[in-house]
Structure formats: C-alpha cells, structure tokens
Amino acid sequence: MTVQAPNWYREKIRDMVRARYQSMGGYLDGTMARGDGGAGVIKFPVIGRVDAYELSGSIQKIQNTNPDLSMVQVSIRDFEASAWMRVQDARKQGPNEQAAVGKMLSNAIRRQRDNLKLQALNTFATGNAEVKTIGDGTAAIDLLDALEAHSQIRGAGAEEDVWWPVTEALFDQFMMYKEFANADYIGSADLPFAKSAAIRKRTWRGIHIMTLPDEHFVFGTGAYGTGSAGNGFSTAGYIDTFMWATDAMGNEAEWDQETPSITTHADYEGTPMLAKVGLSGNSVGILPEGVKRIRVKAQVRPTRVA
C-alpha cells in the first residue's frame, strides 16, 4: 500500500471530481529576476552607472567613476500544505479522487508563489516613495494609464519585458477598445500564463497584459472579498494593480516541492498517510523606477467607450 501511495497523487483522470473554482497558481513564474539564496537570505546585487569624462589634456590623476554597488536582500519564508489520508479511505477512493487531493496540494504552492510576488509589489509601492502611483481610484481604467506607466518604465531605460496582471473585468474593459481587442500576445510562449488557455493575454504597445483569477487582487478599498450581492469586488472602492519590468522585481525559491511527499505514521490508528508539499522563498522590489502602481476603480462589468 505505501509503495503505491505516491502514484495515487499523480493526476490520472481529469473528469468526475469537481473542485471548487480557485486559482491554479504559478501564473507569474518567470516574470521576475532570479536571485542567489543561502543561509536563509536571498540576495539581488544592484549596480549603478558609470559616466565618461573628458580628458583635460594635462597629466593628472584620473577621476573616480566607479559605479555604486549595493545589495538588495530579503529573508526566506517557509510554507507548506498538507493533507492526512486514512489507508482505509484510500482503498475506497477511485484514482481520480486521489489525484484531486494531490492537485489541490500542488495548487496551494503555486498560488503561494504568485501571492509572494504580488505582496512584494504592494510592499514596494507602499514603502518606497520612488514607486509612482498612477490614478486615484475614482475613475475606470483607461489605456492611457497603461501608456503613462509604460512610458515612464521605458523612459528610465528598462529594456526587458514589462508585465501587468489585471482582473477579468478590467480586461473586459480594455476589450471595448478596438486597438486592444485586435492585439495579439507576442511574448514568450513558454511562460506558465502563456500556456494556460484560461488566462487571457495581449501584448499592447510593448506591455504584456494578462488576467489572473480575482482572488489575487486583494489590495485596495474595493479589493476581492469586499463586494456584496455575489460580486467579489466593491465598486464603491478601488483596487491596486501593478506594472513592472522583469529586472525591477526579484524572486527566488530555494526549495519548491509541488509533487507531494507521502509518509506513513504507524504510531497513529490505522497507519494514516500524510501528504505534504512545501516552498521556501520570497520576492522583493529592487528597482523602483521599473515598478508602477496603477490604482483604478473596482469594476465587475465593463462600461461603453464613447
């Protein structure tokens, strides 16, 4: 029984088991710079700039143009998800039920990876005056907000990809603009969100705009969970979204176990099995000029564009 137990937690049958709707997670993998971890700390080295100087024509000591070197670091945080399973119950379950348990555990870790990134963005924007906030949350989202944020990121000199996750309702609002609706996603096809059929995405004016499940948008007075009458968002408030260049944010995981490990516990009645997944990592803001907070009125439906 214990030899076969790990196989029960691999997905075998997609049908029949109905999981409550939830974010599968892992969508933002690959959208931030990697760091170097060790001794419970993740480090991201940052270098300044060097400017050339004109020679005076005389023999004299050189001018010091060494670039500023600094280190952004963040402590590693540890997470796990687990589920007990009685051997007696396992004998009664079909393979699809067993796979569903493993899938839910894996999703918990993938969601946590995304949440760490979004939490770091919010912390960076809240605690750093150099991160500009665009909009005051009283007006519906406009593509001009995206252009302002993107032009400032590119204007600072960023050359890497720029990302902007939004809610499904905000994406619907963008689809009211013909120029956006006719755009195609032209970023990397290997990224998790790009491979997901459930995630809508467009590359518009150099910005990779993608949807995430509503549960990830938890910042602002109208954040997910504040709504009523069946709505996740409160339209009386605002939500904070974030646009960033890849190197402006850092993320690293020293340990990331999505496939559950199975252990049996003979000291418990019935020798139950414990399935566990885990994550050790964190995210942090690095370059404030490459991050923008876009504050918009919370929406649950699009409005007509004149």
Radius of gyration: 23 Å
Strands, total number: 12
CATH class: Alpha Beta
Poorly predicted residue ranges: 9-14
Kindly state the percentage of residues in helix: 10-25%
Indicate the topology.
Elements: H1 5-8, E1 36-38, E2 41-47, E3 69-75, E4 77-85, H2 87-92, H3 95-127, E5 132-134, H4 143-155, E6 162-166, H5 168-174, H6 178-181, H7 192-195, E7 201-204, E8 207-211, E9 238-245, E10 249-264, E11 273-285, E12 291-297
Parallel strand pairs: 5-12, 6-8
Antiparallel strand pairs: 1-2, 2-3, 4-11, 6-9, 7-8, 9-12, 10-11
Q: What's the short version?
A:
The protein is α+β, with helices and mostly antiparallel strands and about 300 residues long. It has helices spanning about 5-10, 85-90, 95-125, 145-155, 170-175, 180, 190-195; strands at about 35-40, 40-45, 70-75, 75-85, 130-135, 160-165, 200-205, 205-210, 240-245, 250-265, 275-285, 290-295.
Question: Could you explain the architecture of this structure?
Answer:
This is Capsid protein. It comes from Aurantimonas aggregata. It holds the Pfam family Phage_capsid_2. InterPro entries: Phage_capsid_2. With 306 residues, the chain is α+β, with helices and mostly antiparallel strands. It has one domain (5-28, 77-297): phage-related protein like fold (Alpha-Beta Complex), CATH 3.90.1690. The protein is 23% helix and 28% strand. It is built from 7 helices and 12 strands. It has helices at 5-8, 87-92, 95-127, 143-155, 168-174, 178-181, 192-195; strands at residues 36-38, 41-47, 69-75, 77-85, 132-134, 162-166, 201-204, 207-211, 238-245, 249-264, 273-285, 291-297. The strands form 3 sheets. The protein has a 6-stranded mixed β-sheet, sandwiched between helices. It has a 3-stranded antiparallel β-sheet with strand order 1-2-3, with no helix packed on it. A 3-stranded antiparallel β-sheet has the order 4-11-10. A hairpin with a 2-residue loop joins β7 and β8. The longest helix has 33 residues, at 95-127. The radius of gyration is 23 Å and the shape is globular. The model is unreliable at 9-14 (pLDDT under 50).
